[in-house]
Amino acid sequence: EKNVVKADLDRILTYLEGVTPAVLENKSTGKEVSNNVDFNFETQIKRGDFRLGSYEWGVTYAAMLATAEITGDKRYENYVNQRFSFLAENYPYFRKLYTNYGSNTDSQIRQIVNPQVLDDAGAVCVAMIKATRRNPDLKLKPLIDNYMNFIMYHEYRLYDGTFARRRPQLNTVWLDDMFMSIPALVQMGKLTGENKYFDEAARQISSFSEKMFVSEKGLFRHGWVESMKEHPSFFWARANGWALLALTEALDALPESHPQKDKVLELFKLHIGGLLSLQSGEGFWHQLLDKNDSYPETSATAIYVYCIAHAIN
Predict the structure, then answer these.
(1) 24-26 and 285-286 as β-strands: parallel, antiparallel, unpaired?
(2) Residue 159: DSSP 8-state
(3) Bridge partners (DSSP) listed for residue 173
(4) pLDDT value of position 199
(5) pTM for the complete prediction?
(6) 131: nearest Cα among 118, 144, 117
């Protein structure tokens, strides 16, 4: 069984090594840019199948690091280190490009230098902190500090401090943002030893659950709009996965002595209880958790299985 899983992982790694180049190019000519003297508004990160600074790649980097630790295969860690080294080496020039060209700068570079939403910052920041704790020589501190500065001080919030969005309506809370913020906060707490990051993470968990956890179901609703008196509850599977994964990461990193840790653990158990009651006979969970006529959803199922197994271990 283990050999089969590892063979599949190796196949994925081989594919990703080929389709996520850590290279700069000129947008018009396609010519590789190897010297920062040649940087101009047409400089971009070479287009591959995935974006090196996107939230889904933050999740992938963290998974690669975990795979390296579990299997002892350094190729997975090397994949992350190569791409993070590329971003760290070029980060000062990325900043200069953005200063000079603003919105004309490559969108991938803009996302790294000037994050606009939690999706741009949280997951990549988590992976960079985890990589730094394994290998301090990566020199990722300027990127980590930039991401964390956005999360702590520039992300839009409700009046009570809850992370929020202005779309699709003003003062909307999205369940996804639990994952796009809380794991980064607790990891920053571990990296720096500063309790303010743990406290902010606990505060966000409390605020999100107050608005979005439907206790009679043991599930989180996907969205909450401040201006609505009644809050419709759609239990989107993947968003519940993001919430569960955020709680898992928080419980991994919060100090045993933190006053809110037991409360977080209690919420985690209630959420797992709600999810277990809705697992289909095939083992999958549905796209809308309480709607059996919605399709079986693979990404949510993967997240739940990971979080439950990790919690048991």
Answers:
(1) unpaired
(2) T
(3) 224
(4) 98
(5) 0.96
(6) 144
Token pair 């919430």 is found at: 243
Percent helix, strand, coil in the chain, to 5, is 60, 10, 30
> Whole-angstrom Cα distance, residue 280 to residue 141?
44
In order along the chain (313 residues), what is the average pLDDT of each group of 10 residues? 91 98 94 83 94 97 97 97 97 94 94 97 98 95 98 98 95 97 98 97 98 97 94 95 98 97 98 97 97 97 97 96
Indicate the burial class of 161 (C-beta count within 10 angstroms; 0-12, 13-18, 19 or more). Answer: exposed
**Distance separating alpha carbons of residues 251 and 253, to the nearest angstrom:** 6
One-letter amino acid identity for 163?
A: F
Instruction: Spell out where 15-62 has E strands.
Output: 24-26, 43-45
**What's the CA dihedral at 74, 75, 77, 79 to 10 degrees?**
160
Number of Cβ atoms within 10 Å of the Cβ of 116:
13
Relative to beta strand 223-225, strand 172-174 is antiparallel
CB distance 142 to 151 below 8 Å: no
- Beta bridge partners, 174, equal 223
51: buried, middle or exposed (CB in 10 Å: 19+, 13-18, 0-12)?
A: middle
Question: Coil, strand or helix: which one is 225?
Answer: strand
Angle at 311 (CA atoms; ends 310, 313), nearest 5 degrees: 65
| CA distances for 62 relative to 69, 95, 224, angstroms | 11, 25, 29
- C-alpha dihedral sign at 305, 17, 129, 144: negative
- Are 288 and 235 contacting, i.e. CB atoms less than 8 angstroms apart? yes
pLDDT at 86: 97
Q: What is the pLDDT of residue 2?
A: 79
Write out pLDDT tens, residues 193-237: 999 999 999 999 999 999 999 999 999 999 999 999 999 899 999
